[in-house]
Design brief:
The structure holds 2 protein chains of 2 kinds. By secondary structure, chain A is mainly α. Chain A has one domain (about 40-245): Orthogonal Bundle (MetI-like fold), CATH 1.10.3720. Chain A is about 80% helix and about 0% strand. Chain A has 8 helices and no strands. Chain A has helices at about 1-55, 60-75, 80-100, 115-140, 140-150, 155-185, 195-210, 210-240. In chain A, about 35% of the residues are buried. By secondary structure, chain B is α/β, with parallel strands linked by helices. In chain B, the strands form 3 sheets. In chain B, strands 8-9-10-3-11-12 form a 6-stranded mixed beta sheet, sandwiched between helices. A 4-stranded antiparallel beta sheet of chain B has the order 2-1-4-5, covered by helices on one side. Chain B has a two-stranded antiparallel sheet with strand order 6-7. Chain B is globular. The model of chain B is unreliable at about 1-15 (pLDDT under 50). Classes of the chains: A mainly alpha, B alpha/beta. At the A-B interface, helix 5 and helix 6 of A face helix 3, strand 8 and helix 4 of B.
Chain lengths: ~250, ~270
């Protein structure tokens, strides 16, 4: 009985805290988390396709650059990369700004936290996306590429008409995984001060001393975001591979 | 070998006409293995040349050297009299000097592959209009109209909105032939077009190819179909270990095999 009453108390406290403004804060946190993830995914898609192309190149130098990229950014802890970009970026920006005289010799030019964060997470996401794109390219039936050459298509036409649509189709399941990884990585950029979900939950937990409540709540919200994306990617996969499934 | 080539040259139509395809002394190695040891071939407008040979004889490689899907190590290829320009790469290997020229010539040499190689993410109709609209830059409406007509001709118009993986091999190969025709090519190259098909599907593809031969299309056909070689083609060529063993009129060749190789080759198939 006492336990039930206790639970009731807990629930009403939670309600009061959320109604008092933390609820809205958490919603903003979700919005920022999604923004960070989407922008990072786009940065990652751009870098990932370039790196995949480099890794597939017949030029040894390009292959080496591509291999190094994926080895380094998949092999280092994400947090280290974020610190490197944020604090390292601040140091470089400050150095440049001081030497050009645009700020005083004791001033500091901070790396914008959103920019530093999405660059770092995007670069990490790009390393994983590069592997997805590379695998997808290798899964294209060689004969179809040969047919594109035999029909006089230029390299650009082959890419646009045959390679890109098929890489996208084959990449959808893999990109779903990277999307989940990237959502989780976005929590790490709370260290740069972007008020995404993790930082908001942290702030709420510390200022209200209800750590259990807020971290559990944030955990549930992350789970909702990652699990909603699964059926969306499934749908995308069904659509893009419609030419391989039986017609209805 | 040379006696037969000379005989064939005499039998060929008047030489003042520029050959649609002229191949001279084509050589190609894969590593240490010399696949083509100096092949020459001439195809005039309206010729249907069946290229026979056991596997490893170099017949597919020869065909693929004509549209530069394989780069020959030496020798020359002319299409409609135009020499495909080659240069030496840094590693000493020959390579096309002008990729634009190669692309332009390829568009005139539509190829039909053993494994169809239709673009699997496009419907049949999209397969037929992709290269004509983007490579030849013809108006899309006109290409669509022609594509539908071609699909009717090869008998798969009802499947125009299907994706290739949803069709039988015979239907896919007929779609692939229609894709080739949609380029209005000067020469059609067939690389074992029936070898990947179930026996009961071979007939439908051969019927289409026969009708193309009858309307006077210039065709180079690498094939194992002895019936097609004997009854449809205007010239038969047997490759053996990377060399031209014999070449000539099919009726003549099948009635009186000019070489022991050719005799043995058709004997194997008649068994």
């Amino acid at each position: 009985m006492e336990f039930l009453n206790d639970l009731k108390d807990q629930a009403s406290t939670a309600y009061e805290l959320l109604a008092a403004g933390w609820g809205v804060q958490l919603l903003w946190g979700i919005a920022w988390t999604l923004a960070v993830t989407v922008v990072s995914m786009l940065i990652g898609a751009t870098l990932g396709s370039l790196v995949a192309a480099a890794k597939l190149s017949h030029r040894g130098g390009l292959r080496f650059i591509g291999e190094s990229y994926t080895t380094v950014f998949r092999g280092e802890p994400e947090l280290l990369i974020i610190y490197l970009f944020y604090y390292g970026g601040t140091q470089v920006l400050t150095g440049v700004a001081r030497s050009t005289g645009s700020i005083g010799s004791t001033d500091i030019l901070n790396m914008p936290s959103f920019l530093g964060g999405v660059l770092a997470v995007g670069i990490i996401s790009g390393a994983y996306q590069a592997e997805v794109f590379r695998g997808s390219f290798l899964a294209i039936h060689r004969g179809e590429l040969e047919a594109a050459r035999a029909y006089g298509m230029s390299a650009w036409l082959r890419f646009r008409l045959v390679i890109m649509p098929q890489v996208l189709r084959l990449a959808v399941p893999g990109l779903g995984n990277v999307w989940q990884l990237t959502i989780k990585d976005s929590a790490l950029i709370s260290v740069t001060g972007v008020a995404e979900l993790m930082l908001t939950a942290n702030k709420a937990a510390r200022s209200t001393h209800h750590s259990l409540l807020f971290y559990t709540l944030a955990g549930i919200l992350y789970l909702v975001m990652t699990s909603i994306s699964t059926p969306i990617f499934d749908r995308a996969e069904r659509y893009t591979s419609r030419s391989f499934t039986r017609p209805k | 070998m040379s006696a037969n080539v000379a005989a064939a040259a005499k039998a060929a139509p008047s030489s003042d006409e520029t050959p649609a395809i002229s191949v001279k002394d084509l050589r190609k190695c894969f590593g240490d293995h010399e696949v083509l040891k100096g092949i020459s071939l001439e195809a005039h407008k309206g010729d249907v040349i069946s290229i026979l040979g056991s596997s490893g004889s170099g017949k597919s490689t020869m065909l693929r050297c004509i549209n530069l899907l394989e780069t020959p190590d030496s020798g020359e290829v002319r299409v409609d009299g135009e020499l495909i320009k080659m240069k030496r790469g840094r590693d000493g290997h020959q390579m096309p000097a002008d990729i634009r020229q190669v692309e332009r010539i390829r568009a005139n040499l539509a190829m039909v592959f053993q494994s169809f190689n239709l673009w699997s993410h496009m419907t049949v109709l999209e397969n037929l209009v992709a290269a004509p609209t983007h490579v030849l830059k013809r108006p899309r409406a006109e290409c669509l109209e022609q594509a539908e007509a071609l699909l009717k001709r090869v008998g798969i118009w009802e499947r125009r909105n299907y994706y290739p993986p949803h069709m039988s091999g015979g239907q896919q190969q007929r779609a692939a032939i229609a894709r080739a025709l949609a380029m209005n090519p000067k020469v059609m190259l067939f690389d074992e077009p029936t070898s990947a098909l179930d026996p009961e599907l071979v007939g439908e593809v051969l019927r289409v190819m026969r009708s193309l031969a009858e309307e006077g299309r210039t065709m180079l056909v690498v094939t194992h179909e002895m019936g097609f070689a004997r009854d449809v083609s205007s010239k038969v060529m047997l490759l053996h270990k990377g060399e031209v063993d014999s070449v000539g009129e099919p009726k003549e060749m099948f009635a009186r095999p000019p070489t022991p190789q050719f005799k043995q080759f058709i004997a194997n198939f008649n068994k």
